[in-house]
Amino acid sequence: MHRGKGMKFVGDSRIPINGRKPNIPKDYSEYPGKTEAFYPDFLLKEWMVGAVFLAGFLCLTAAEAPPLERIADPTDTTYIPMPDWYFLFLYQLLKYTFTSGPYNILGAMVIPGLAFGSLLLAPFLDRGPERRPFKRPLATGFMLLGIAAVFYLTWQAAAHHDWEAAKRQGEIKEVVEVDKEDPGYKVMEANGCLGCHGGNLEGLTGPQLVGTEKTADEIKDIAVNGFGDMPPGLFKGTDEELQQLADFIKSIEADK
């Protein structure tokens, strides 16, 4: 500074004015137990949880065979599809009167859309810094309500489903290409046997007839008198046609 030139002041933008620090985050020590650094603290925990889950999933896939079913048959109108377990609550929701039939759009789109869309509002409904559930009643209440609804609907779907019938309808069965020009096949076709036993006798609502291990006389007796869910009197042919039917089924067993 020279005499007569006055005094000059130099400002530094790094020095806060009146103690305000709008662009400088506070130190983590000011929030004990409430927050942490994303890297490496939070990210390391995520990686550890992911690694444990992945290891458990790989062990499960190695220990348990996948529950495969038979090849899809679009002509089988008796097959009742069943979703995977994580969609059972939506499957159950569509069974109720107010969400099925003419109100199907309500159960398929409106209610799930509102439920999952409300998750987008969660950050705006509760913006407090607290992480303890009992200090966040609104967020905790919505979460518990959602978990309870999903659990109840999933349990209802599983409890009222006929798992034995589902196992039978999805069972992988041996399919043998049969001679559809055989007289015995024609007899079965004429008497409506294929509607229950399938075009290749693989079984639909009725059991499969490939490898029945029954004698010709037993087959004829079942055709006339019925067996299990099969009522008597369905066969309307002659004795010769009945013999052709029995011989045909036995021939498929021999070729199996």
Automatic annotation (TrEMBL):
Domain Cytochrome c: start-end pairs: 179-253
UniProt-annotated location(s): Membrane
Gene Ontology CC entries for this record: membrane
Keyword Cell cycle among record annotations: no
Listed transmembrane segments: 42-63, 103-125, 137-155
UniProt key word Nucleus: no
SUPFAM superfamilies in the record: a domain/subunit of cytochrome bc1 complex (Ubiquinol-cytochrome c reductase) (SSF81648), Cytochrome c (SSF46626)
GO molecular function, one term: electron transfer activity
Membrane topology: Multi-pass membrane protein
Record domain Cytochrome b/b6 C-terminal region profile: where: 28-155
Record keywords, A-Z: Electron transport, Heme, Iron, Membrane, Metal-binding, Transmembrane, Transmembrane helix, Transport
UniProt protein name: C-type cytochrome
Species this chain originates from: Perspicuibacillus lycopersici
